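Please, structure for the following, as C-alpha cells.
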Amino acid sequence: TRMYPEVYISNSLVKMEYAVNFGSASDNVYPKVVIDEGGELHLSRANSVSYGLSLNRNVDVVVKNGGCLSSALGGAEPNNYAGLVLEENSFGTLLVENGGKLKIDKITDKNTKATESRRVDIVFDGGILEMTSGSILTTSFKVPDYHGFTTRNKGVNIVIPSGGTHIFAAPFRGNGNVVKTGAGQLGIKNG
C-alpha cells in the first residue's frame, strides 16, 4: 500500500530549530510539503549545531506564490551548519515557482549515489534563490551528471547580498533564464 501524506503551509510562519528533514524512510510513502502564499517554513539554530534543511528519500517539496523555505545560520558555528542538504540516497523534487523563494546560506550535497532515476531535482520556474551568506561559497554536486538545477519557462532569480560571492560549480539545465540580482557576485562554471 502506498501512502501520500501532505503538509500545506499558507499564511503562517512555521519556525523550527536544529533540523528539518523532508522525505520518508519507506519507498511506499510519498510525502509532499507545499508552502504557498504567505507561508514560510524557517529553520534557525540559536547555538552550536544545525543540520539544516535535509532532503531525503521520496522528496516532493513545492514553494510557490510568494511562499518561502528558509534556513539561517543563527548562532550555529559555520562549520556545524549545512544549509540545504541533499542526503545520501536522496531523491525527489524541490520545486520553487511563481514567486516562491528558497532563502539559504549554502547548499551541501552528501549524495554520492545519485542516478538518472534516483536524484534530487531542484527546479525553478519563476522562483527566487536567495543566497544569504556574505562570504565566499561554492555550490557543487557529488554527481553533477544527475544532480543540479533545472530552470523552466520563467527561470530563476538568484539574489546575492553585498559582500557575498557565490560560485555555482553545478549545471543549470532547462529552458528558463538565470538572472542575478543583489550587490554580490555570482559565478557559474562547469563541474
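The mean pLDDT is 87. The longest strand covers residues 59-64.
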